[in-house]
Amino acid sequence: MFEKILFATTGSPECDSAARVAFDMARQYGSQLTLFHVLGIPGKGDSNVVIDIRSGEEVDVDAEYIEGVAEELRTTYAKQLEALPGVTIEVGVGVPSREVLRMARTKDVDMIVLCGPAEGQQAGFYKRGVVGDTLRKVAKAARCPVLTVSRPSASFWGGFSNIVFATDFSKASESAFQFAKTVVQAVDGELHLFHCVDLSRFQSPIALTQDGIEAKLAEARRRLHHEYATQLGDFKRFTSEVWEGTPYVEIVKFARERQADLIVLAHHARDVDPDERPFGSTLEQVIVRASCPVVSVNRPDKLPQAAEA
Fold first, then answer.
1. DSSP H or E stretch at residue 97
2. What per-residue confidence (pLDDT) applies to 19?
3. What region holds the UspA domain (predicted)?
4. Is the pLDDT confidence value at 125 over 70?
């Protein structure tokens, strides 16, 4: 299903949970796994000096230094590499988000695996440092699905079997649905269609009356059925739910209630001003709080293909 997977890592303990998922995925699906680390942001001109992502210090990069970093990655992931022969290790120099996207294109991967914000970044507004910026830019621009793991509790990987697809009915959500549909049918799992009506978006007093709220909920249920359920054909192992509230809160609660092992949603709606439909920020908040891995999908370019009978 996923022939090629790119795992972008800093090699730090914060990426251990994502590493566990990446290696387990590659093992389960027989995928070709590439381990990728970006050293840092290059200095000006022709200088070999870069600002190391992990330490923030300036280092002089040459072939020997790059090989040293690669060897450090081999040591960090020694047990996983021993259990999964054939893993490729790549080291790059540059702006992390650009290099991850470049490597994904070069390798023509079907999935990018990233580690989410570190433990100390999980306050109400987590710190938007290099890791957060990289995650946001990669998820927004990647042509393939991007899977993110931020919490140790989200690193358990028993395969896909119980998937929540959360939609805001945007164009990008259609690609996310096709991903969820293909995966759940391939593994004969359970799919949970979900939409949260964000009442804060409605300014009209009429919309906020009980009758108005019920009308919005009924409309959303109709759209879930018409736009997604009708595409499932003979597949019957699905549920459909519409809740009201703050989207990222309700998505996480719903996934926990359904004991989901994967959440699938779109990063953003490209045809709508992000300030008008801030689903990108919803994705970030879901990643921080979810107790399972989160996959974001924007485009139909690299969706998994169903296995032929």
1. helix 96-107
2. 94
3. 1-149, 160-297
4. no
How is residue 174 written in tokens?
């259609």
> Hey, is 45 helix, strand or coil?
coil
Question: What single DSSP character describes residue 129?
Answer: -
What is the percent of the chain where pLDDT is above 70?
81
Of 205 and 137, more confident: 137
Can you read off the two tokens belonging to residue 172? Answer: 């990008």
Residue recorded with tokens 């359904």:
258
Q: Which residues contact 157 (CB under 8 A, 6 or more apart)?
A: 20, 21, 24, 25, 28, 261, 293
For tokens 């709220």, the residue is 213
Please give the Cα distance from 157 to 28 (Å, whole number): 10
Give the long-range contacts of residues 237-240, CB within 8 A, separation 24 or more.
237/184, 237/188, 237/189, 237/190, 237/191, 238/184, 238/190, 238/191, 238/192, 238/193, 239/190, 239/191, 239/192, 239/193, 240/192, 240/193, 240/194
Q: What is the 3-state secondary structure (H, E, C) of 188-257?
A: CCEEEEEEEECHHHCCCCCCCCHHHHHHHHHHHHHHHHHHCHHHHCCCCCEEEEEEECCHHHHHHHHHHH
pLDDT for the residue 14: 86
- Rounded Cα gap, residues 244 and 199, in angstroms: 7
Q: Which domains does the chain have, with CATH numbers?
A: 4-149 (3.40.50.620), 162-308 (3.40.50.620)
Q: Which two tokens stand for residue 267?
A: 């990063």
